[in-house]
Specification:
By secondary structure, the protein is an alpha/beta fold. The chain has a single domain, classed as Vaccinia Virus protein VP39 (Rossmann fold). The protein is built from 5 helices and 7 strands; from the N terminus they run αβαβαββαβαββ. The protein has a 7-stranded mixed β-sheet. It is globular. The N and C termini lie far apart (45 Å). It binds S-adenosylmethionine (SAM).
């Protein structure tokens, strides 16, 4: 069973190039992107209130039927989930609310504890707030740069300073 979702194959390939270790997903829905990430990482925390679409039941059904054991589902908004998450991640995928303010908030919050972040729908004309939030973030944070793009996914990385 492959969960329903919006992720295209070029976007899945982009995630496969970078996902690793302790991984955070903001915006899971039915679990399509989680089904790509889970086999690549040690542990995947999936944060989603599951109240935009009725996705919670289908997501849990996929976890059970596919016998996925390294996913921790957190039914909450990212901004409310801080106490339920570890302090650091190796990789984060942001695909929650696509409004400018939400993307800015999610990106800023994730960047506090993660040096490698992918965002969905960068460049998609229906969601100009994603590009705006990413470009503003990069302009304000010179240690960060865009290191990859595939489909509608942009991957940002923090430079390591010794
Ligand atoms: C486009 S869907 C995610 C699709 C999924 N990544 C996939 O590839 O199939 C967006 C999801 O973001 C969730 N969402 C909206 N606001 C959120 C927030 N503040 N924190 C976490 N998730 C949020 C919605 O509930 C919805 O399920």
């Amino acid at each position: 069973m492959t969960p329903e979702g919006w992720l295209t194959e070029p976007e899945a390939a982009t995630l496969r190039r970078h996902a690793k270790g302790r991984c955070l997903e903001v915006g899971t829905a039915y679990g399509r992107s989680a089904s790509v990430l889970a086999p690549l990482v040690d542990t995947l925390w999936c944060v989603d209130p599951h109240d935009t679409f009725d996705t919670w039941g289908e997501f849990l059904r996929w976890l059970t039927e596919a016998d996925v054991r390294n996913v921790i589902p957190i039914r909450a908004k990212f901004e409310d989930a801080t106490g339920l998450l570890p302090s650091g991640f190796d990789f984060a995928f942001i695909d929650g609310c696509h409004k400018y303010e939400s993307v800015r908030s999610d990106l800023t919050r994730a960047a506090m504890g993660c040096p490698l972040i992918a965002l969905h729908d960068f460049g998609y004309v229906a969601y100009p707030g994603v590009r705006q939030a990413v470009e503003e973030f990069l302009a304000a944070n010179p240690k960060w740069s865009m290191v990859d793009q595939g489909g509608m996914i942009a991957v940002l990385k923090r430079k390591i300073t010794l």
